Structure formats: structure tokens, C-alpha cells
């Protein structure tokens, strides 16, 4: 769940995520993993374990999985009142394995004017 304090911010961050994933390449992902590994190497941190893990696996599969799991069809923006009924149905079934939603963008309603 990605929460924002305004609908505008939520929509912008949603689009930024889609753009970032669409433009993500094997080379860029490899650089991110290499840089993280170098930065955290030798530290007693969960990030050390994370980057060590990704150094050992097939990044092409990771890239494919990211692009498959996070796209226009699998990311839900619940700020659209026109889709309220459809969104409610998807949100009420998140625990089911056939539910396609992998990320949710929403406004923290108490802060929205």
C-alpha cells in the first residue's frame, strides 16, 4: 500500500512507479544490486542479506517478475470514485491467489481536504 496525503500526489507517485518499472532494464537492475551490495557489504544488516541474495540469482527472471507483477493491470489506484464498486470488490478479495492486485495507491483520507 502506497499512501499519500493528496489525490494529486497519489496519482503522480502511481505514474512514477509505472514509468520506473517500464524503463527498468537488466543493466540498471544489476547496477542497483551491485551498488547496494558494495554499500552494505560487511555490515550486520538485513540489506546485506537482501543484496547478497540478489547477487546470486537470475536478475533476468527478477526483472520479468517485477514487470509481470507490477503493471497497469496489477496496480490499483483507489482514488477514482468512478471505479469505487470495482475497487471494493478487488480490495475485499486480496487474500485470494487469483486476485491480480499487487500494489495499492490511496490517499490517507483523514488528511484529504
Number of strands: 3
> How many domains?
1
Helix content: 40-55%
The first-to-last residue Cα distance is 21 Å
C-alpha Rg, in Å?
Answer: 17 Å
The H/E string reads: EHHHHEHE
SS element count, helices: 5
Low-confidence stretches: none
Principal-axis shape: elongated
Strand order of the largest sheet: 1-3-2
Strand content: 5-15%
| Major sheet details | 3 strands, parallel
Indicate the structural class. Answer: mainly alpha
Mean pLDDT: 91
Give short descriptive properties of this protein:
mainly alpha; three-stranded parallel β-sheet; hydrolase; endonuclease; nuclease
Short description:
This protein has 113 residues and is mainly alpha-helical. It has helices at residues 7-23, 26-40, 46-55, 59-69, 84-91; strands at residues 2-4, 75-77, 103-107.
Q: What would your notes on this structure say?
A:
The protein has 113 residues and is mainly α. It has one domain. Helix content is 54%, strand content 10%. The chain contains 5 helices and 3 strands, in the order βααααβαβ. It has helices at 7-23, 26-40, 46-55, 59-69, 84-91; strands at residues 2-4, 75-77, 103-107. Strands 1-3-2 form a 3-stranded parallel β-sheet, with helices on one face. α5 links the parallel β2 (75-77) and β3 (103-107). α2 (26-40) packs across α3 (46-55). The chain is elongated. It starts with a strand and ends in a 6-residue tail after the last strand. Its EC number is 3.1.21.5. It comes from Tetragenococcus muriaticus PMC-11-5. Keywords: Endonuclease, Hydrolase, Nuclease. This is Type III restriction modification system DNA endonuclease.
